[in-house]
TrEMBL record:
Biased composition regions of type Basic and acidic residues, renumbered to the chain: 233-251
Origin species: Cylicocyclus nassatus
Domain called Potassium channel: residue spans: 143-201, 278-352
TM regions (residue ranges): 20-44, 146-165, 177-198, 273-293, 302-319, 325-348
Pfam families found in the cross-reference section: Ion_trans_2 (PF07885)
The name this protein goes by in its record: Potassium channel domain-containing protein
Location in the cell: Membrane
Length: 460
C-alpha cells in the first residue's frame, strides 16, 4: 500500500510538471531575452566609451556650432531690420546715403569677429589634440565618458525588437560591428520569443472571453429567436441524423450541442474582433499610465508614442526619459509587441483567404500538418488513417486528395450533405473479413462434422 501511494504521488508530480512545462518555456525565453539585453547594454557601454578629454573636445565643438548658429540668426534679424530702416529713409527713391550702408556693416562686425576668434581657438585645440592623442598621460587614461545605462538598455532593446529609435547610435567601428553581430543573433531569437508570447496571450484571451461571447450569443438567440439559414438547417439535420435516437431530454441536449457547434464556427470571427479591441484598449490604458510618469508626454503624445513603438515604426522623435520607470515601459512594449504579432497573424490569415479565394485546391499531398511541434505530410496522414481502418490499398492509391479536401470543405460549408457512400456488404467488408481471417462460410459446420467422423472411423 505504501509503495502504491508513493508511485501515485510520483505520477501526480509528473503530470503537474507536464502541465507546467509550456509555462516554464515561455518564462525561460522571456528571461533569456532580458539577460541578452542587459549583457548587450554593458558591452556597448564599454565599446563606445571615449576618453573624457576627447568627449569634452567634441562637446566644445558642438557648443561652438550652436554659437555660430545663434550668431547667424541674430545677424539675419539685424539685416532685416536695417533693410526696413533703409526703405523708410530712402522712401523707395533708389538714392541711398552712404551712411545708411554702415548700418549693414554694423550687423556683421561683432558676429564675424566672434566667429573668427572661435575658429582660431578651435584650430588650436585640434592641433593640440592631434599631438597628444597618441601620448595620453596616465591620469587621463582611466577617465572615460560612458553612455548612460538607460540609453544603453533602450538602445539594445530597440535593436533586437527592430524598433530602432535612433536617438543614440554607435560611432566607432567596433561599436557598429557589435551591432551587426548582436542583431544577427538577437533579432531572430527575440522575434521567436515575442511570437511565442503572443500565442500564449492569444490562448489566454480566448479562454477568458469565449464563455462570455457564447453566453451573449445564446442569450441573443433566445431573445430574438433567430431564423437559421437553409444551409445551417441542413447541416443541423445532417448532424442529428448521424446521431442515435435519444429521449426528449436527449433531444434538447442535441439541439444545444448543435448550437454550440455553430458557436464554435463563429469563434474565429469573434476572436479576431476581441483581439483587436484588446489591442486598442491596451494602447489607451498604457498611454494613460505612460503619460502619468513621462514628463515630456501628454495623453495624445503617449498614444502616438505607443502606436509608433508597437508597430515598430520607431521614428525616435519621442523616447522614454524616465529612468525610474524604464523597466515598466520596456515590459509594456514587450507585451504590446506580442499583441501586435497576434494582430498581424489575423490579418495574414484574412489576406491568405483573399489570396486563395476562388482558386483550385492543389498539391494537398505535400501539405505539412503540425501536431504538438511535430509535422507530417497530408499524404502520410491519410495513408496511416486508412491503415488504421483497414481501407484497401488500391482505394488509398486511387484517392484524389485535392478532390477529397475540396469536397470536405463543401460539406463543412453546407454545400454537400456528406462524403459517406452507401456500399454493399461484399464491397465494404468482404476484403476486410478475408484479411482479418474472420470470414465464416455456411457449410463450415458440416465440413467440421464430416472431418471429425472420418477421423473417428479411421481409428477402427
Amino acid at each position: 500500500m505504501v509503495f502504491h501511494s508513493r508511485s501515485a504521488h510520483v505520477s501526480n508530480k509528473k503530470i503537474d510538471l507536464e502541465k507546467l512545462a509550456p509555462y516554464a518555456i515561455h518564462l525561460a525565453m522571456v528571461i533569456a531575452v532580458a539577460v541578452y539585453v542587459i549583457a548587450g547594454a554593458f558591452t556597448i557601454r564599454e565599446i563606445e566609451a571615449i576618453p573624457q578629454r576627447i568627449a569634452e573636445g567634441s562637446r566644445s565643438r558642438r557648443e561652438a556650432h550652436e554659437v555660430r548658429h545663434n550668431a547667424l540668426n541674430r545677424t539675419r534679424k539685424c539685416v532685416l531690420a536695417a533693410l526696413r530702416r533703409l526703405e523708410k529713409a530712402s522712401n523707395c527713391s533708389q538714392q541711398l546715403d552712404i551712411s545708411h550702408l554702415a548700418w549693414l556693416d554694423e550687423c556683421y562686425k561683432h558676429d564675424l569677429r566672434r566667429l573668427s576668434a572661435d575658429s582660431r581657438e578651435q584650430k588650436g585645440e585640434e592641433r593640440q589634440g592631434k599631438k597628444g592623442s597618441g601620448n595620453l598621460t596616465d591620469e587621463n587614461d582611466d577617465v572615460y565618458e560612458y553612455w548612460s545605462l538607460m540609453d544603453s538598455v533602450l538602445f539594445c532593446f530597440t535593436v533586437i525588437t527592430t524598433i530602432g529609435y535612433g536617438n543614440v547610435a554607435p560611432r566607432s567601428f567596433n561599436g557598429r560591428l557589435f551591432v551587426i553581430l548582436y542583431g544577427l543573433v538577437g533579432v531572430p531569437f527575440t522575434m521567436l520569443a515575442i511570437a511565442n508570447l503572443g500565442k500564449f496571450l492569444a490562448t489566454v484571451l480566448k479562454t477568458w472571453t469565449r464563455p462570455f461571447v457564447r453566453c451573449a450569443k445564446r442569450l441573443k438567440r433566445r431573445l430574438c429567436k433567430p431564423k437559421y439559414t437553409a444551409k445551417e438547417k441542413q447541416r443541423l439535420m445532417e448532424r442529428e441524423s448521424r446521431k442515435p435516437a435519444k429521449t426528449k431530454t436527449g433531444d434538447d441536449d442535441a439541439s444545444s450541442d448543435a448550437e454550440s457547434e455553430l458557436d464554435e464556427e463563429d469563434d474565429n470571427t469573434s476572436d479576431g474582433i476581441v483581439l483587436f479591441i484588446a489591442f486598442l484598449m491596451y494602447i489607451i490604458a498604457g498611454s494613460a499610465v505612460i503619460a502619468a510618469y513621462e514628463p515630456e508626454m501628454d495623453m495624445f503624445e503617449a498614444v502616438y508614442f505607443n502606436f509608433v513603438t508597437l508597430t515598430t515604426i520607431g521614428l525616435g522623435d519621442l523616447v522614454p526619459q524616465s529612468d525610474t520607470y524604464l523597466v515598466i515601459t520596456l515590459v509594456y512594449c514587450t507585451i504590446g509587441l506580442a499583441l501586435t504579432t497576434i494582430a498581424i497573424e489575423i490579418a495574414a490569415d484574412t489576406l491568405k483567404k483573399l489570396h486563395y479565394f476562388g482558386r483550385k485546391v492543389e498539391n494537398v499531398a505535400n501539405v505539412q500538418v503540425w501536431f504538438g511541434g511535430k509535422k507530417i505530410s497530408m499524404k502520410a496522414l491519410v495513408k496511416n488513417l486508412g491503415d488504421q481502418f483497414n481501407v484497401p490499398l488500391d482505394e488509398l492509391d486511387n484517392l484524389n486528395l485535392e478532390q477529397f479536401v475540396d469536397n470536405a470543405i463543401k460539406v463543412e460549408q453546407g454545400e454537400l450533405a456528406t462524403l459517406r457512400v452507401d456500399r454493399g456488404w461484399m464491397n465494404s467488408n468482404y476484403w476486410r473479413a478475408i484479411e482479418s481471417g474472420t470470414m465464416h462460410y455456411v457449410d463450415d459446420d458440416d465440413l467440421v462434422t464430416l472431418q471429425s467422423n472420418r477421423n473417428y472411423y479411421s481409428e477402427f
